[in-house]
Amino acid sequence: MLFEKVIVFLGILKLWNDPCLTHCRGMGMRRVQKTIENRIECNGVGLHTGKEVLLSLNPLPPDSGIWFRRVDLPHKPYIKATANHVTQTSLCTVIGNNGSGVSTVEHLMSALAGMGIHNILVEIDAPEVPIFDGSAQHFVELLQEAGIKNQKVSSEVFALDKKFSISQEDKKITYYPNKELIVSFTIDFDHPLMKEQEYTFRFSEDNFVDEISRARTFGFLRDVEAMKKCGYARGGSLENAVVIDENGILNPEGLRYPNEFVRHKILDFLGDLYLYGMPVRGHFVVYKSGHTLNNLFIKALKNGKEKKDAHSDFQEASLSMSVNQRAFTILPA
Q: What does pTM read for this prediction?
């Protein structure tokens, strides 16, 4: 009991004295760390690999963070879910360490962010997180079924007290100080269904579940076969993505929201943002960003350096095909 009280005190003291977190002070932003009550398993298919995946979610003690473990590999290596371990951002976010990796982590990370989970171990027997229906809904339901547990230890919350921005070509992310987490996202694709679609999301767990978690990944029919030949989207179908042709939506059930595309981009952004390593508060104004700029932004935020025309050192996929690059970058969205 005494040990727990010391940890709480030190956590609060660190939060108060950190100059990077001055915007948090006196604004009711203290949070309690959470994990899950019970271990839970699920089966699914990887979007890009098309392989069957067994994944389990396991509770961890306070101050552990979020970890992935490749139980199918020798020595069953661990990978901490942080921006420093992002190794690739083409078509999904990949984290890795010492030669082992896990791809397409963004939807699960978004669910963990949306449900306020700070400490969890994700055990997986394949190189890719299952896609399920292309949204974060199934992960949210798994967390709810496992039970969410308050851990009586305060959580650090990151916030800046100044404007901060990063850009790459015509894409841009700008941060404004705010005691809440707000994401204002704009997409602009060369298709009548996705021209200048905008949405502003104000974070709460309920809002995440209702407004964001059910938004699915999306892409164009004309690119699917070319992607499969290059080793991508081998597990993709109308069951786990919204597919668009020149005339409209191919999914017989249609869209879950009139602006489902931009909502899914917010889902991805929240998942990538959670790789900062702690909850982040502020108003993010995002224009046409994807996984690459999202992760460059997080690393710049950690270093406190604004950038224009940011350069990515991430390993990019080799895609030798004649498709429109703007369309290509939205698979998955």
A: 0.83
